[in-house]
Task: structure prediction
Amino acid sequence: MLPERYNISNIQRIFDNPSLVRRELGRLVSKFIFPINNRLFERKYGNGIDVMSKDWDNLIILDACRYDYFSEQNTIPGSLDRVLSKGAHSWEFMRGNFAGESLHDTVYVTGNPHTPKLPDNTFHHIDMLHNPSKPESTVERAINAHEEYPDKRLIVHIMSPHAPHLGKTAKKLRERNSALNMSENDGGINIWKAVIEKQVTRKELCQAYQESVDIALECAETLTKELNGKSVITSDHGEMLGEKTFPLTHRQYSHPHNFGTSRAV
Result:
């Protein structure tokens, strides 16, 4: 029996965009190559750092922030180190660093939708934002939490530069395609699928991502100035912007689960 993905609707998409045939072939090849990649990746780099064991008072997490973009765009003073995350996806990162731990010396301010998966007693307090697309709201809540719990460590999980992207390019793309970044249940389309469908170019994707990094960095800089103690800026995972990891495989977008290349190294 053929997989469910091979249906009439997707066959019609192939007629509209023949390059999808190459992508599907690349996807099938990737299924065999990626497990090998992950074994080699972990053998070379290890399983990632334990962020809770590091020296910081405030840990500022920029979701899906790539090291290369950060290093090129950052103007916040301080030293920069390249480290390996425990996950290629937010929940992998959270599970590897937080789940099963008693982190009662820490307050977690976050808009990450995977947070409810953590046991209720993981942190001293969790301030969960329900509109994480506005990073300035996360900054405001983090400053309030810092004032309310001055004797606790603070983790601030800002959802930028993760999609939906912010900035003038992202705004222009959404004006051009009103369904962009909407829920697929509402008939929408995410930006990565839009690139595959040739509704958005890779250049536009990278530009939208770059502008989102700038916005995230502005928020991080505000926090470093407003919060007392030692602040460290990091990411939970990286982001793929259409790179090919191996010959014959398809281009990768977003941050595939359990995929070493997309980790924030």
Summary: The beta strands are 58-62, 103-110, 123-128, 153-158, 231-234, 240-243, 252-254. DSSP finds eight helices and seven strands in the chain. Residues 19-45 form the longest helix (27 residues).
